[in-house]
Amino acid sequence: MRWLIVSLVTTIVISTCFCVRYEPNWASIDSRPLPGWYDDVKLGIFIHWGVFSVPSYSRKLMPAWFWLYLREMKLPDYIEFMEKNYRPGFTYADFAPQLTAEFFDANRWAEIFQSSGAEYIVFTAKHHEGYTNWPSKYSFNWNSMAVGPHKDIVGELAAAIKMNTSLHFGLYHSLFEWFNPLYLQDKANNYTTSYFVDRKTLPELYELINTYQPEVIWSDGDWEANSSYWKSTEFLAWLYNDSPVKDTVVTNDRWGKDSTCHHGGYLTCADRYQPGKLQKRKWENAMTIDGQAWGFRRDVTYSQFLSIHTLISTFVETVSCGGNMLMNVGPTKEGFIDPIFEERLWQFGEWMKVNGEAIRGTRPWKAQNDTINSNIWYTMKGSDVYAIVLEWPQGDTLTLGSPIPSTSTTINLLGYPDQFQYTTRPSGGIDIKIPPIPANKMPCQWVWSFVITGLMN
Question: Which residues form the Alpha-L-fucosidase C-terminal domain (predicted)?
Fold first, then answer.
């Protein structure tokens, strides 16, 4: 009898799960609940890599946009760079054989990303240049198997991530391509035709999903045409209803210039999006360790890299306000992750070992930034509240304005064994007594998390 009851309940649950069908319109697509794993994990690693990684040149611009700056915008710096360093008549396509990837080791990449404390990655399957990092049937000789590495980069990385780590695997894909004749024809027709979408964009997306089964689809290249041209809702309805990742996949909002910051899965709105306050919908801060650019730059200077303190502080603010952070690294043309990127990821992982409790699986608290101390941001998990302190207090007192303690309130510092004493402030909030802690007893070097239990609010 018990078996029969369990069987009936299971059947009902399965039937319930599959009875929702999403229609190809934004009202229906937006009604899909975000799979819970994405809101729990908080930190992702973005990887920008393509033919643009060969010239790897940028004057405070985007290395991945090298071709556009050179061919269409004809920026003087880029023209001069080419004239000084390459033979006359050298084209952007001539860079592709130099994307050699001789040091590319998918397992090593996976190890580095896992050590960062991140729980998902998003790799550039195709940027606006149109070069695909997998042997797509729709890119002919402009792909990583035909020219350059002569490897299925997406496939090797997907296998390494899924087999050797706990990370969720995701892919970035550009809807458009700057100089594809089919796209330029549609653009000239004011997007009344869809030759490029039907023959390139959609076939590539279906190919990526069915072949590699990513759990994140990070769409981009959305700003020139509406989602109706891209047939985005039709694709997303298939993705959510019938694809092999329909129950776990998450998507962003860049599916057309009418959808960005309005429709889709989670919101990205703009690069380095940091609203500083709680948002109504789940969002993501896609940002860069190189503080000025996406992708590897040979002309980058040390001072242009964000410090680990800045990276963690940005992350804490993002999580406190309900967002995830997607932190970008740029490998070299040889497929090597530069030591400064690796160092930042390793430092981040060391911090997460101590403070991950205040991050993973948390939700925004009633307050985000403290009402008295702007260097404090809050998260919560169950009834526990975490006060994450960006700067260690100079004296023997840490003042918090937002918490209202009860008679059962306790305060601990993550990674430190002793409980902290506090007093209630007459005007509201609490003063935490900070004992003298030797440097070698501090739980971490940057940004500290106090866990507060038993608050009245």
Answer: 368-453
- To which residue do tokens 């919560």 refer? 380
CA–CA separation, 409 and 282 (whole Å): 31
Residue 62 confidence (pLDDT): 87
Query: What DSSP element (H or E) covers 453?
Result: strand 448-455
E-assigned strand segments in 205-305:
216-220, 250-251, 283-288
Domain ranges of the chain: 21-358, 376-455
pTM to 2 decimals? 0.94
Q: In 3D, which of 405, 375, 416, 404 has the Cα closest to residue 392?
A: 375
How many whole angstroms separate alpha carbon 118 and alpha carbon 108?
15
CATH number of 376-455: 2.60.40
What proportion of the chain, given as a percentage, has pLDDT over 90?
A: 93
Q: Which of 202, 182, 219, 194 is nearest to 137 (CA)?
A: 202
391: exposed, middle or buried (Cβ count in 10 Å: 0-12, 13-18, 19+): middle
Label residue 59 by pLDDT band (50, 70, 90): confident
**Measured distance CA(358)–CA(170) in Å, rounded:** 25
Please compute Rg for the chain using Cα positions. Answer: 24
Q: What is the DSSP letter of 307?
A: P
pLDDT band per the 50, 70, 90 thresholds, residue 10 = very low
Q: How does residue 16 score in pLDDT terms, banded at 50, 70 and 90? A: very low
CA–CA distance, 117 with 193 (Å, rounded to integer) = 45
Residues near 331 by beta carbon (within 8 Å), at least 6 away in sequence: 47, 49, 53, 104, 109, 296, 337, 338
What class has domain 21-358?
A: alpha beta
Element housing 46 (H / E) = strand 43-47
Average pLDDT, the chain: 94
